[in-house]
Design goal:
Blueprint lengths: L16 H32 L1 H12 L30 H18 L9 H20 L4 H25 L7 H25 L4 H7 L2 H13 L35 H9 L16 H10 L1 H21 L12 H20 L10 H21 L5 H29 L2 H10 L2 H22 L2
């Protein structure tokens, strides 16, 4: 154990490897928490702003410069339609599709070649795309420009998620808890901050411009907070300079610092599954990657079903659950549906530190029950008030967040060290696939209900 010498009987503070390990451990957990927060922030804000984005373009088309000013009745109803559901001409699912399809395409293709792009460059691309998304949507004057901004947010989120999940294999597995909690925190911070700032009178444009600080925090968290292994390929390709063939493989093992006692116990229980050389993942052939992907289906399918059901609710049904007699306007009700959902996600994505659930398929079934219940509720309009829906969407968020963190925890635990980096990035397609299918399904549903 490292320590400083004591001279002439003086008491000099002892600096131990254990204390350095604790600092390193918490720096890395905190770093991944902030990366999760910043990576999902733009994505969440775009969904929270979906109702406003569409309303803004509708207002521009009627030659009005203030958001929804001429189209909202004193009760908060959209006066441009006469249906009982107070519909926008375009479903918020259109924003969802723009927010998820680029992510889906990236997650489908990138795991087969992304290892050739150094992590440092990937993070810079994520930062640039996120900043561009806020700027484009802020200054948008057309639906097309708004959707382009949403696409940039999707590119940033998709590339960031698969990259940071792959990055976790270089660290103690506990950083997955930090990542999951951070992504849940992005939901709360993004939706709550957007709702709160617009509620107090800031325009959506000003609110989005304030959020440009988030990409800067992402860059700072990655480059200045994380402690990487000495040979980590920050700016080099994984195949560069003999990196994969170097016989001193021990130097390239995941960063395993000495951690607090409770984390040490879990680490000992999982000894062997967390160790290995993530650098070996670069040696996988395309055929081996496809075989590994097939083995991941038991994780990907339940995750896809959970996310299909919850985004079918969020972007297909919630905008139709409007209560005219409630003190909030339609837009305000929609924003708080999204905010409360994200609160549920945050708590469940943070649960990995205290509990783990292997049977994710149970969560899939429960989420499908939620979707069925709310579909019937939209058609028959039997729910008495908005607070009932508030409670349902919190529960919905709890199910979705738990499915996400437990899926990736058990992939990390049960996948061999050689395939683990690829598996973590490839499995991230599960939630995006489910979300994309829900968006495609929600648009005709929206059109059907709005024709009644």
């Amino acid at each position: 154990m490292d320590h400083t010498e004591t001279l002439s009987g003086d008491h000099v503070p002892i600096v131990t490897s254990n204390s350095r390990g604790r600092v390193s451990f918490w720096r890395n957990v905190s770093g991944f928490w902030l990366l999760g927060l910043c990576n999902n922030f733009a994505y969440v804000v775009m969904l929270s702003a979906a109702h406003d984005i569409l309303k803004q373009q509708e207002t521009h088309n009627t030659t009005t410069n203030t958001l929804s000013a001429s189209l909202i009745t004193p009760e908060g109803r959209n006066d441009s339609n006469s249906t009982r559901y107070d519909c926008n001409p375009v479903s918020t699912a259109a924003v969802l599709l723009a927010d998820i399809l680029p992510t889906l395409l990236i997650k489908l293709a990138a795991p087969f070649f992304i290892h050739k792009c150094p992590y440092g460059f990937r993070v810079l691309l994520c930062v640039a795309a996120a900043a561009s998304s806020f700027l484009l949507v802020s200054f948008s004057s057309t639906v097309g420009m708004s959707i382009l901004g949403v696409i940039f947010a999707s590119v940033s989120s998709g590339l960031g998620e698969l990259s940071f999940l792959s990055l976790t294999v270089f660290f103690d597995r506990t950083v997955l808890g930090g990542w999951g909690s951070g992504t849940g925190g992005a939901g709360v911070a993004g939706a709550l901050l957007y709702s709160a700032l617009t509620q107090v009178g800031l325009s959506p444009r000003a609110t989005l411009l304030i959020m440009l600080v988030v990409p800067a925090i992402m860059a700072a968290s990655y480059f200045f907070l994380l402690e990487f292994p000495p040979s980590f390929p920050q700016w080099r390709s994984r195949k560069g300079e003999g990196l994969l063939r170097d016989p001193s493989a021990q130097e390239r093992r995941p960063l395993m610092t000495e951690v607090p006692d409770d984390a040490e116990r879990e680490q000992e229980e999982e000894e062997g599954s967390a160790s290995g050389d993530p650098g070996d993942a670069g040696d996988l052939t395309c055929a081996e990657r496809l075989v590994a992907l097939r083995g991941l289906l038991k994780f990907i399918i339940p995750l896809s079903v959970v996310y299909f059901a919850e985004y079918f609710i969020n972007q297909g049904l919630l905008e139709l659950l409007f209560f005219p007699g409630y003190y909030m306007s339609h837009a305000e009700q929609y924003r708080w549906y999204q905010t409360l959902y994200q609160i549920g996600v945050f708590f469940s994505r943070s649960s990995l530190f205290c509990m783990k659930l292997r049977r994710v398929w149970v969560l899939s079934v429960l989420q499908c029950v939620n979707a069925g219940l709310l579909t019937v509720a939209v058609y028959y309009q039997f729910l008495p008030s908005a607070p009932v829906v508030f409670a349902i969407v919190v529960y919905e968020g709890l199910l979705g967040g738990a499915a996400y963190v437990n899926t990736f925890y058990f992939i990390s635990k049960e996948t061999g060290s050689r395939e683990r980096e690829f598996a973590m990035s490839a499995a991230s397609v599960g939630d995006s696939f489910g979300i994309a299918v829900s968006g495609v399904t929600a648009i005709p549903l929206h059109n059907y209900f709005c024709s009644l």
